Amino acid sequence: MVEDSYDAIVVGAGGDGPVAAWKLAEAGLSVLVLEAGPFYGNEQWPRPNEDPGGEASSSAEDLSGDLLDEQFTTREFEMITKLVFGPADHERGFWFRKFPGDGAILQCAGVGGTTLHYTGCHPRAYPAAIDEQGHWPIEYADLIPYYQEVEEMCDVAPAPVTAKEELFFRGAADAGWELIEDLNVTEPGYRPQPNAITQPDERLHVDAGYDGDFTYPDVEGDTLALGNIAGNPHPRGAPYEEKAKKASNVSFVPPALRTGNVTIRPNAFVTDVVTVTPRGDTPTVAGVQFRDTWSGSVQQVDSEVVVLAAGAIETPRLWLNADLPANEWVGRGLTIHFGDNVMGLWDPDDLDEAIGSDVIDQHEGQDIAARFDYPGVGMLQTVGTAPGIGAILGFGASASGFAFQNDTPGEPWDTIGRLAGTELKRLLSDYRRMLQILVVSDDRPHQRNGVTVAPGVADEHGPIPIVNYEPSEGDRQRRDELARIAADILREAGASHVHRSDSPPTALHVHSTMRMGKVVDEACEAYDVDRLFVADHSVLANGVGGANPTNTGQALAARTGERIVERHF
Amino acid sequence: MVTNRIDDWLSVMWQSLTSTGGLLLELVGVGPDVDPHTKVTFRAIGDAVMPETPGLAGELGPEHVSGGLAVDLDAFTVTYVDDGFQLGLPHLGPQGNIPIADPIAHLLDSAALTLVERGDNERDPDVDRALSLLGPDDPSPRAVEDVVGPFAKLSRRDRLRAIAIVDEFDVEFTPTDDDLFELDAGLVGQLVIGFMEMIYYSEWQGYDEFTQPPSRRSHPNDRSAVQSWRQTGFPGFADGYAALRGYVGTTDSPLGGGDTWATVDEAADVRIVRESGGFRENDYETSDYREPFPVESG
């Protein structure tokens, strides 16, 4: 059960909060983690979307691989609906937030947060993004020991090669790029993803003639069944901690609970940060108030330290709604890796020549297992999806209108824009012969971009977040350059048709709205509120160069956990 | 962006909203389950986004003919958008969800009027076009003829053009006095194109009843149960695949080693090899970093 007071409260059990909680608990502090969404795979909540279930979980014994198997069905539409940011109750819709245009923000609710959705990609930041772009008050070298610790905890290793990765590597090599073998990337080139997914059993090699079941204990590790965006419970039958994908609920929550010092309270939306001002100057944090998303009841818990880890949208929203001291950078400087999608389609004979098969079958293998790095510009990554997610990511949105409204003379793509109708049906009939490349640009923090709240536009937890995002000319040029490189790689790999989405700004990676050096200091403690820390992607001082941010967010959260203990306990 | 038209558009929008008797009542959960105008409009959306395509039979095969209306994609999309977003304010509807299918239908009518006003429609609006989309379980054409809006009268491609116009409106409207409900126009395109496409191509059609609680849903995970899977060739969800080709490596690379399965780049010695290694914890140097593109301050 939830006590009246703790040494530390962590607001949010997403990708980073459990890392900070683990560090604090390892040091012997009592820690309460408050999570707005449900706790999947926990015996306290056998039907987490239908019944309120238990109150809190304080033991790794509660974790159940069988329940995770049951709740994570791998069916894409059901799982997207289940995981996207909203209350646990399946009868209620997503929490509404405002985003400009027809883009969207991808956030998840639940213990594990958006790592429930993520594809396990765990590269480090580009060193130059930390050391040379002028945003960070600490050095890349400061992060390395924490990267190493996180990578060890998450089984980070080179991702396996299936047909789609081989096709991409061939295209990248033929386009003149070189293989990168390093963790600390300073030059452009291609490499396997450093993925936080336990590598597959070697018996799953195409030459090994495996004809057994793909369930534990027949096989261990990843089963190459895609599905990470939909939660990935594979291998089915495995104990909770033996699941291949190391989302934070699998990697950091179990060791945090095993310390005996951590209580995780799901279905708890924090609506206020309580402060006291004993000396009449800088406020000091005293606890938080949260609302039960099932019953609506409100509870206050006291603590010596509060760590905000609700993510780069909700953390500034909470700050603003809690009426904490004004700071011109709270909520500002949002980066989202302003992205795009470039799709290749192949003729069967060309594919056969390239990869020895007339289909790519993107649903086999890991979702994202090959990448192209370009420090200063961003990255590309191959994406395999089931057809529903593929349709909305690749064709469902565009800043250029519909493809039939656009001509493409002189462009490296044959079509550009949103697709619907006959054209979409014709194109998706080739689902088994298509490969999508996700463009992820190194957009830079601008003060105009970010999260605000407005009185009057409120939900049950206060004024909702209103997000503004408008890329700069440089951001657009970086994205265009990456899209051109993607098209070139697909052509070199033999694609007969290349389609570019020209996606509207869509926030898959969300960061830098409570930036280190602007809102928080080098230990991630707020300049304006004593004992209030931030440990999520909002403290990243920029978009880490365009590399997937989870590794850096977790490394920094681990570092922050240690700094909290050093400073205050 | 059509900022000079926003005031006009808002005015049309507001007239459209207020002239629809019962809309505000529906916003507070009173009224018919699905407004006939909304029903007809969403059938027109479904027909434009995922049409029946007899022309693809010869090119791709007979399984590629059926479209969204054949599987009631339109009706489910109404349910989905009405249940999909909530502010947790019970007086706005069941479970605090915000019913937005009706406002979307009216917004698309406004976009259709704008399209025609601009002269950008390629074919004349025609009420029979909308009525021909009614299914066997829908009210008779005569019963709904009077509620067919401008959007549903457009040709398929003109309907898509009208949706594209909605994307241009970077505005919001607040039909209630206390600003409790806002609808960003950009969300409309996302819902009626992006989400409709995702629903259609996902496993959705295979459920007995998706609105059941999760623990009571059943899905056969069989290609024959999902029309779109037959059209894409997606085999359904699997526990795993023996699809491993190996790991990337070179002769001296730490990334991988062992037997070669395939050569990727002969000149650079890049191969797919049987065993995985690891990435190198390399020294790095960034002092020669130069920004490839302009960097704006702020």
Can you describe this structure?
The complex is a heterodimer of chains A (569) and B (298). Chain A has 569 residues and is an alpha/beta fold. Chain A has a domain at 5-157 and 227-334 and 510-568: FAD/NAD(P)-binding domain, CATH 3.50.50. Helices cover 24% and strands 19% of the residues of chain A. In chain A, the strands form four sheets. In chain A, strands 1, 2, 7, 8, 9, 10 and 19 form a seven-stranded mixed β-sheet that branches. In chain A, strands 5-12-13-15-11-18-14 form a seven-stranded mixed β-sheet, with helices on both faces. A two-stranded antiparallel sheet of chain A has the order 4-6. In chain A, a hairpin with a 7-residue loop joins strand 8 (268-276) and strand 9. In chain A, helix 1 (17-26) runs parallel beside helix 14 and helix 6 (163-174) crosses helix 13 (473-492). Chain B folds into two domains: 3-201, no CATH class; 244-298, no CATH class. Chain B is built from eleven helices and six strands. Chain B has helices at 6-18, 23-27, 36-49, 56-60, 73-83, 101-118, 127-131, 141-144, 156-168, 185-201, 227-232; strands spanning 85-86, 172-173, 183-184, 247-249, 256-265, 270-276. Chain B has a three-stranded antiparallel β-sheet with strand order 4-6-5, with no helix packed on it. Chain B has a two-stranded antiparallel ribbon with strand order 2-3. In chain B, a hairpin with a 4-residue loop joins strand 5 (256-265) and strand 6. Chain B is extended. Chain B starts with 5 loop residues before the first helix and ends in a 22-residue tail after the last strand. The relative contact order of chain B is 0.11. At the A-B interface, helix 3, strand 3, helix 4, strand 4 and helix 6 of A face helix 4, strand 1, helix 9, helix 10 and helix 11 of B. Strand 3 (94-95) of chain A pairs parallel with strand 1 (85-86) of chain B, so a sheet runs across the interface.
